[in-house]
Amino acid sequence: HKEIKSYIAYFILFISILFIANGLRIVNFVFTGRFKHIGRIISKVNWTGNENVLDVGVGKGILAIAVAKKLKNGSGKVIGIDIWDSEDIMDNTKYYVNQNIELEGVADKVKIKTQNASALSFKNETFDVIVSKQCIHNIEDKQERKMAIEEMLRVLKTGGKLIISDSMYIDEYEKILLDKGLKVNISSKYFLDTYPASSILEVTKK
């Protein structure tokens, strides 16, 4: 009986440690990790300030705002698109993201549109850079995810860069891009700074 009680105590301790560790990860992500990860994403581009950028799944606008600040001294602009699913992220609304953009002083650089990633309205080869963070995995249908990747490639200029950070389906995205004859670079997952743990995929359109 003592051994059983001992095993139960160790098990409870182990579960408690897991909960605490997970809680610390979430706290780190909210206050510092997500900003560090956005820094990683935008560091993949050698910015001139004149880039036309598309942010697919703009959410609260944190990534779009960081990109816009890279364009402050040039002619570049950011378009952020989303479908504004209020059940997906708290305060994920067009009004909220526009508030954030105003507060950060980049309203002249960022335009927000309601649009589906798998059916983009833009002309072929419109953007120099396309970024997407924690978005494409929300598309439940595999074929529609493929369409979203293909649409991003379509509106990306030749020589332009596509950067996707996601916690799921990265291998799936890679296969789609490899089948197009493109060279794909994928980071390992960043467990400390992202929640859920996410990788960064980057590709240059040929």
From TrEMBL:
<dbReference type="InterPro" id="IPR013216">
    <property type="entry name" value="Methyltransf_11"/>
</dbReference>
<protein>
    <recommendedName>
        <fullName>Methyltransferase type 11 domain-containing protein</fullName>
    </recommendedName>
</protein>
<feature type="domain" description="Methyltransferase type 11">
    <location>
        <begin position="54"/>
        <end position="164"/>
    </location>
</feature>
<feature type="transmembrane region" description="Helical">
    <location>
        <begin position="7"/>
        <end position="31"/>
    </location>
</feature>
<keyword id="KW-0472">Membrane</keyword>
<keyword id="KW-1133">Transmembrane helix</keyword>
<dbReference type="Pfam" id="PF08241">
    <property type="entry name" value="Methyltransf_11"/>
</dbReference>
<dbReference type="InterPro" id="IPR029063">
    <property type="entry name" value="SAM-dependent_MTases_sf"/>
</dbReference>
<dbReference type="GO" id="GO:0008757">
    <property type="term" value="F:S-adenosylmethionine-dependent methyltransferase activity"/>
</dbReference>
<keyword id="KW-0812">Transmembrane</keyword>
